[in-house]
Amino acid sequence: MPSTPPASPPRRRAPRNSLNPDRILDAALTLLDRDGAEAFTMRGLAQQLGVGTMAVYSHFRGKDEISDAVAQRLLDTIELPREGSGDPRGELREVCLGVYRLFTEHPSALELLAGRPLRGDDAIALIDRMLALLVRAGLGPQDAAHAHIALMQYTVGSALWNTRRARTLCQDGARDRVLAKIAALDAGAYPALVSLAPDLLCARNEGTGQFEYGLDGLLRGLLGAAPQV
């Protein structure tokens, strides 16, 4: 006679009336960081909290509203430099580093936010500060607008590239396969790559250091000829 499989333990539910928006956002961020943006569903969030799905809907209208709230919570952690605390280039560098660190620390949140427009006071304050710094650095209106977009494209794109690359290399044997492929390259067919492979691998592994190298070059290109105001 086949044995009856043991019953799965009941889901541990949250104490009655303990659910609130802060707990929901904490759980959403935990879910994103642990399981990725693809696992971020209302049902998955409810399971993370130990409540029924409708209990979450009693605080937020849906996933999009929670996504916006998570975005604002994360953006609020970026410490903008005190206004007028230094030269515009240094302040711009600090702002971009803050955005980069935020998105590399929360890569799944980055993927979620990349496809949604930035909303709320924190996003507006960040954009306004960057534009003001670019104007203060001596750029005209059109150049300041283009420079702001270029800096954000580089910052967000770098964070996305680095986090996805790190995730790929964490797969079993992935790093060793990459190293083996580079070591097997024909120096006659790819002389520059073979010659510079050790330096290239070091640069690719520098993370924030590599981002800063590119950011400094970009800032020099954008602001180098601009008169300081």
Automatic annotation (TrEMBL):
Residues 41-60 bind DNA. Residues 18-78 form the HTH tetR-type domain. Pfam families: TetR_C_1 (PF02909), TetR_N (PF00440). SUPFAM superfamilies: Homeodomain-like, Tetracyclin repressor-like, C-terminal domain. Keywords: DNA-binding, Transcription, Transcription regulation. This is TetR/AcrR family transcriptional regulator. It comes from Actinacidiphila epipremni. The lineage of its organism: Bacteria, Bacillati, Actinomycetota, Actinomycetes, Kitasatosporales.
